[in-house]
Design the sequence.
């Protein structure tokens, strides 16, 4: 009976291995149906994939580089993963499972939820076979750039189509750390044998090793990550209990030790280095103009009228009306080099310094409120002498009022006599 059970177990294992070997990558529809990261926070949190109990067990942690404080998010005993990168476009970490308990010798691409460590297996890929992928990062366009430990091979993977869009060979082996710098979108890392910093351009494959030798770091496996301001950190496994964090100076290519004794057995680090572009606030709707007279904003000193065609603003004060120019589809203020008291129409006067306002705000804000940039006089000094300085500037709040009489009203039509009915 035991032999039968053993035979059945062996057959089941072979079937699982065959199924895994022929498994196709998930379709785009499957990926879209999978849930989004529960909390998509793109900040300077540094994530660490650690291997405290061998290469098949991976802890996902966060690590504060200046204090060494770490917090475990999850432990996974089925996917021994490395080469992690944070995708700022979807809020997930991506990595390569080189030695998972999957019954498959081909490395798998995986997606990791940074909130709870949940893993979505994206399957094996022929391009990953035969390598140990230990370095990974995600560049600005959201593609995933990984490197092999000893063979110097690198790949660039499109995470929306699961296809290799770039590949090549590095000019130096044993690059054990790299990450994309948000300031220039170049990949920086550490070559452990030469003890030198490297720079890699994934667009053209250009590889550079800097001259300065980091003897204070040594010949140890390291990992690296960036803050969003371009600060680079290097974390090196120089002992079971004496792992060290360095801050890298990319100007003189030196390493400054900041914390030690972390002992996480780190495999790689990642961070959301590229801020995801977020849309700005929706502008307030434009007020609907009166069919006969456009809306007016006014306070005790001046008012502004938007024309019916929405192409100009008429400014009224005690000197009379002034037209503002339109350029590039928005209402334009007079620029700082227009310092003379008159323009080609003779409309700019001393009092007209109030015309240096943000007219595009006037154009967009709703009828309940408007912000106008006003310029206060500096005593007897002519404000045009210091036109470029903002020391007179303040925000004036204007309120919507009943439309004031137009200074140049159209004459009322002459009433026609009512015809006498026959």
Sequence:
């Amino acid at each position: 009976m035991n032999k039968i059970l053993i035979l059945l177990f062996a057959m089941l294992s072979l079937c699982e291995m065959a199924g895994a070997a022929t498994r196709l990558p998930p379709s785009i529809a499957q990926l879209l149906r999978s849930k989004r990261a529960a909390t998509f926070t793109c900040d300077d949190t540094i994530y660490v994939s650690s291997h405290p109990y061998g290469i098949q067990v991976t802890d996902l942690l966060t690590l504060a580089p200046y204090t060494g404080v770490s917090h475990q998010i999850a432990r996974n005993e089925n996917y021994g993963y490395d080469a992690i990168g944070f995708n700022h476009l979807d809020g997930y970490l991506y990595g390569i499972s080189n030695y998972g308990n999957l019954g498959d010798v081909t490395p798998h691409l995986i997606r990791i939820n940074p909130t709870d460590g949940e893993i979505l297996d994206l399957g094996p890929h022929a391009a990953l076979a035969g390598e140990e992928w230990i370095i990974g990062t995600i560049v600005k366009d959201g593609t995933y750039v990984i490197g092999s430990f000893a063979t110097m091979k690198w790949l660039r993977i499109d995470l929306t189509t699961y296809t290799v869009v770039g590949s090549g060979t590095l000019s130096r082996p044993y690059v054990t750390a790299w990450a994309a710098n948000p300031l220039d979108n170049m990949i920086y890392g550490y070559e452990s044998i030469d003890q030198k910093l490297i720079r890699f351009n994934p667009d053209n494959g250009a590889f550079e090793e800097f001259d300065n030798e980091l003897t204070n770091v040594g010949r140890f496996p390291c990992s690296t990550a960036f803050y969003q301001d371009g600060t680079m950190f290097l974390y090196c496994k120089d002992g079971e209990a004496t792992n060290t964090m360095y801050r890298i100076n990319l100007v003189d290519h030196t390493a400054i030790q900041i914390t030690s004794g972390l002992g996480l057995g780190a495999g790689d680090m990642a961070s959301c280095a590229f801020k995801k572009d977020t849309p700005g606030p929706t502008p307030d709707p434009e007020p609907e103009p009166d069919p006969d007279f456009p809306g007016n904003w006014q306070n005790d000193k001046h008012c502004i009228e938007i024309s019916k065609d929405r192409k100009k603003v008429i400014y009224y004060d005690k000197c009379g009306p002034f037209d503002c120019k339109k350029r590039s589809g928005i209402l334009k203020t007079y620029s700082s080099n227009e310092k003379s008291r008159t323009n080609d129409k003779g409309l700019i006067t001393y009092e007209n310094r109030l015309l240096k306002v943000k007219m595009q705000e006037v154009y967009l804000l709703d009828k309940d409120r408007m912000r106008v940039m006003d310029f206060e006089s500096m005593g007897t000094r002519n404000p045009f002498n210091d036109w470029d300085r903002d020391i007179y500037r303040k925000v004036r709040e204007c309120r919507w009022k009943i439309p004031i009489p137009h200074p140049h009203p159209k004459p009322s039509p002459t009433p026609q006599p009512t015809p006498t009915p026959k």
Notes: The helical segments are 2-21, 28-33, 359-364. The longest helix spans residues 2-21.
